[in-house]
Amino acid sequence: MGFLVLVRHGQSVANLANVFTGWLDVALTPQGEAEARQAGAKLRDFHFDQAYCSTLVRSKLTLTLILEQLHQATVPVHAADALRERMYGSLQGLNKAETIRRYGQPQVDRWRRGYEDAPPDGETLHHTQQRVVAYYEQEIAPQLRLGKHVLVVSHGNTLRALRMQLEHLSVAQVEALEIPTGGVRVYELTPMLTASRMYDL
Fold this sequence. Notes:
By secondary structure, the protein is an alpha/beta fold. It has helices at residues 13-17, 30-42, 57-70, 96-103, 105-113, 125-145, 156-167, 171-176; strands at 3-8, 50-54, 77-80, 150-154, 184-189, 195-200.
């Protein structure tokens, strides 16, 4: 049966500056490019049939660097808005430390980690999960049912939302879940698309 690999993009300039990024289209830092290549090196024994990323450049470039590292540049790539990061609304572009000073740590924690807490004019993690899981079911799962090997390069909250679905995580578990930049998660799947094995590289 096929396998599914989830990778968070490498460090972006916004990650480095400690700002809320969301749908802001920002580049990778040199460290982020190195993290993408390191993810590719970890996946050196994998061959992919299909690859998916968001339409944001930090996701697309991470995927490009991974495939270059693997010498698999001809793998079909699908970029989708549905795989974009959580939309942080009016917090986008704001420094996280300054936002904590303005609103307090508990409120910012709820906006950042809460499943049902929406930043001002932004998405809850629940809303993010709905669009990501719908795309997964419509576009990615059919490929996996055919036994294809699939790579998805996306964003921290997007992948938290998808992992909640794939791993049957509780709200408390997903709120506590941290995914590092360049982090790699592998799922070996049964024909029913349940994970017979899952692990980080």
